[in-house]
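Reference record
================
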Amino acid sequence: MSVIESEFDMWKYYAMRPINDLLILNRNKLFRLMSALAFFSGCVGSADLALFIYYVEENLGFNAKDIAILFLMRGLSGVFVQTVILKPLNSFIGERRVIMFAFSVGALHNYLYGIATSKRMFFIASTIATFTSMSFPTISAIKANNVDEIEQGRIQGALYSLSSLASAVGPMLLRYIYHQTKDNVLYGKGTMFVFGSGLYVIATFCAYMLPEQKANSKYSKNSSKNVSSLLGYGTSDV
């Protein structure tokens, strides 16, 4: 009987382990907000990548050459954003405002997708879209800064799992919006991108709600220095 119970406990442990690992995302208000940010950004970002090619071919007359140029521009712009802009901007305004800025740009470029009537307008919107790529590494950094070293792998795994779920839900959701609103007189087939813009607006509000003391590493480091000085550490008698 004890052998059967032990085997059952083992199977139960392995069956429940993924759920238990994901529960770290519900640890506190910061983690819940960060999880919402990761989900919204993953949802809209994956839908944009999966659907915009078909959209521009059908509605804006893009050909293979146009799409190749578009991806080249996005790639070069993305490299510039990640290597030149992200670190100085993060040092200047902090992680919390970087996420707010990235999601604000996400709302803007998705809205431009929705109302675009020319190739030029879509090229411009797609180029500025690379600024939204600053959000995920910043979210990962904030989460990593708020857990112990032994939990780094667990938090990153939970974050990627949530993003993978969002990547599956996003295209289906926007595709559903597309089929329900493609004959709409206001935005027509672009309504799905306007809807995505609305999700980015919600994500921007969630980023605004992040506690600055925990979200910004610069603030945390300054707080640690102040605590150390109060306790007498890091000071020397002359």
Observations:
- The two ends are 71 Å apart (CA to CA).
- Confidence is low (pLDDT under 50) at residues 223-238.
- The CA atoms of residues 6 and 12 lie 10 Å apart.
- The longest helix spans residues 29-59.
